[in-house]
Amino acid sequence: MAATKPSKPSASANKTATAKKGASRSRRSALWELRLYVAGMTPTSVRAFENLKKLCEEHLQGVYRIHVIDLLERPKLAHGDQIIAVPTLVRRLPTPVKKIIGDLSNAERVLVGLDLRPAGSWR
Fold first, then answer.
1. φ/ψ bin of 119: left (φ > 0), alpha (ψ from -120 to 50), beta (otherwise)
2. Which of 4, 17, 64, 75 meets the CB 3.0–4.6 Å disulfide criterion with 32?
């Protein structure tokens, strides 16, 4: 089997890659508004918050705001973000809105779900 030499990316491909990197950087520097919906201080809720805080500190370095919403105290707030399970993380900003259900223990899936990593990178 003959080996082929990888082709050099075209100038337009380099511009696209550079634009994507720039967009990724600007997306990370914009304020991230995250809502974590929980139902009381259960072990799963606490674990979800700890996992989220750790990911934010590692990947968003100070440009994030986390709002923890306890649906036992404020159940009507579930309607606004169409919450059907808890814990649920809702990324309000940057748009588009994204939702992730669970304790956020699979860091790679959470990063992909938040658009901090490209899809398919966690497999």
1. beta
2. 64
Q: Collapsing DSSP states into helix, strand and coil, what is residue 112?
A: helix
**Is 87 within 8 Å of 101 (Cβ atoms)?**
yes
Find where tokens 């550079």 sit: 18
**pTM for this structure?**
0.75
> Side chain identity at 115, as an amino acid letter?
D
Q: Is 92 helix (H, G, I), strand (E, B) or coil?
A: strand
pLDDT in tens, 104-113: 999 999 999 9
Decide: helix, strand or coil at residue 76.
coil
Cβ count within 10 A of residue 95: 7
57-80 pLDDT tens trace = 999 998 999 999 999 999 999 999
